[in-house]
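Hi team, as promised in this morning's meeting, here are the two structures we talked about. I've kept the exact order from the run log so nobody has to guess. The first one is mostly here for context; it's the second one we should focus on when we meet again. Sequence first, then the predicted structure tokens.
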Amino acid sequence: MEENRTPLPPPEKHVYTLWEKLALVFALALGTVFSFVWFGKDADYLSREIRFFIPVYALFWGIYAAGFCLFNRERAKRPASVFLLAAAALLFLRYALYRQAETSLLNLLVIPLILMLHAVDCAFDVPAHREGQYIALYLRGWFGAPFLCIGRFFGAVAALFPKGKADEKTKAVRTGILAALPVAAVAAVLLIRADAAMSYYLSSFLSGLSLGGTVTRLIFACIVAVVFYSFYYAMTWKKPETVSAPYQKAIEGLTGITVLAVLLALYGVFAAFQFTYLTGLAGLPEELTYSEYAVQGFGELCAVAGINFTVFSLLHAFTKEHKALFPMLLALLFATALLLISALYRLILYIDAYGLTFKRILSLWFMGFLIIALVLFARKLKKPQLKLIRSLAMALVLWYLALSALNIDAVIAKSVLHEAAKAGALRESDANYLRYQLSADAKKVLLESSMKGEIYYDVEPEDLP
């Protein structure tokens, strides 16, 4: 007996709104800037001259941000979102103030990272008791959103030419144009060959055009447009729902306490060594200087601090209630504070011996952020409703803005000159470093120095970068 089957209804066709169609304009504008301005015929020149490259880079991300804020206009007004957008703008402003090379290059990467934070903050509300979703959503923004809604781009393009609404005359004209195009192309080629004058002028007009290059740029423009339209759509109109249920407490309280007890015992032994050698109660081995002792431990101590923060986060989120959990987590943060103090002391010893460089300034900056992070972790222990990951991200951006506000090369120059003044003379290697390695940001400090003659004895200041 044949079973009666009801045919499934056809899938409902998506009706594109005006905003979804408008996103095409921004996506196509981004593709055009990327292929025909950023990587246009003057691409080599732009790559050599950062003062010309940066305005194009700013134009590209400015168009993106304008579109995203327009499509998320209500949520984009929130203070955190405004702050992140302003932070990206301030990093662009830094290019007009300073020429320090390392930070200038670093900002090219940091700006899109901040803009992705802005997109996630605008698009999603994540509860404090489930804030690990921030990490997943941030990664989705990079590796999912640009590709999840690629089909919507072509659907939006098709929606610009609706079917069934044109009258018979319009349809007839469209059909006639489509039918005439191949015939007209063949006829045009024959006519051009038949008329020498037409062939000459057309050849002259096309001589400056590179058809292959233009086609390649068109292809890349379309790819960029499709990817950014997909991103707009996935972060605005097809967002996944965030989970609001708290994490399941899967770790037994006694297990968590044991983990913390082992770590704290290890840190107790380490603290004894630190107190002995860094305070001078016992001398270092003969083969080891204090500068070597300082530099060898800094990175490892920062890594251990990162491990402690991770352990704190996991145990705080997934461990069942236990009366000893709070004091043990507090003790872990206290041990982390001691580790950071030790790392900072080592770094100061090294800087005191060798002076400041960009890497050492960056290390000091990173230490400052870790101290801010420690305060936020302690606040999370006291106030569980704090959105820790979001707060860390905002603090990181704010602290990076503080770093960007520094005239880094001028600070380095002052440090080198200070060390030279203590030594009573400027070494030739330091003089060469001041002359040729620092940017024009340091020139004012160098010209005002009492050692100006030793720095510029064989070169005019105007000839320096």
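And here is the second protein, the one for discussion:
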Amino acid sequence: MKITDVKLYRISIPLRVPFKTALRSVDSVEDVIVEIITDTGERGFGEAPPTGVITGDTTGAIVGAIRDHIAKSIIGMDIDALEDVLQTIQRCIVHNTSAKAAVDMAVWDLYGKLYRIPVHKLLGGARKEITTDITISVNPPEQMAADTRDAIRRGYDCLKVKVGVSPELDVARLSAVRKAAGDDVLIRIDANQAWTPKQAVRILNEMQEKGLKIELVEQPVKAADIEGLKYVTERSYVPVLADESVFSPEDALRIMQMHAADYINIKLMKCGGLYNALKIVSAAEIYGVECMLGCMLEGKVSVNAAVELASAKKIITKIDLDGPVLCREDPVYGGAVFNEKTITVSDAPGMGIEGFENGRLLSI
């Protein structure tokens, strides 16, 4: 099974409500879909979101990286030589992790199809069903309370609450969310790098002292401030999850060795796909550090790839793969079934994606 062509598409999917964090506010998913075609007629699918504020990857950068570097490097390669293909994707261009992730997942899709086995079974096959949280965007406290009640009505029992815009309001925001959610719902918060280390410790400890029962805080300080991350981890009543600080297996290993965070968040778009995500998983297994499998604001194709990994490995104990349920519609055929908080992985060969509609073909 040899790679003969790579096609790129632009897809736009409206969100149910605007997605707001300390870093950005968006109304729709605007992703690039990759289709790899082989000489046997099999097609593999991948996807990348332009999340410039986090990864630095814009739509133009993703398209350019795939068109001018990755596609040229892998066309003609045999899918059966999986390691060679995956290494070529990683080495043919530096950075550009989202573009690499999109092509990487399409290659894994084809490899599973070649041997007629689902990717999650290739990787470990730990479980068929996982449970995700759902994101509550940062807004005035009363709006966040209303969004919380809506999430509870839809059956969610774990919320990821965005904070960090006007930090002086964060305790009020969480108080409103906790009151709306009741005591039995898990609440984890995501500051998206918004606080200084001392500010983070003060806010987090105040939240716990008020009985807000925060499960964990995601990336409370700037991504590059590993010492600051460690400072918060050592002094906060709330366990710390490293997210934007982890772009590579080397980043994850450094944080684990320094005990700079309690948990590691793996995102395919930050690490460049399953190839590097598996290295982070292996390190986490050695160090005994539980992981979250997260996503950017992504559509079903790329989140489906994350579901394959999350379903395969037991060290991944926390799931933040709500991208598809935040969307107003689903233009993708096949793959995992997203039934609100419950995600059931596909047993179809590869990653189970059959195709999509309303994609605009891009010149390559």
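Starting points for discussion:
The mean pLDDT is 96.
The longest helix spans residues 97-114.
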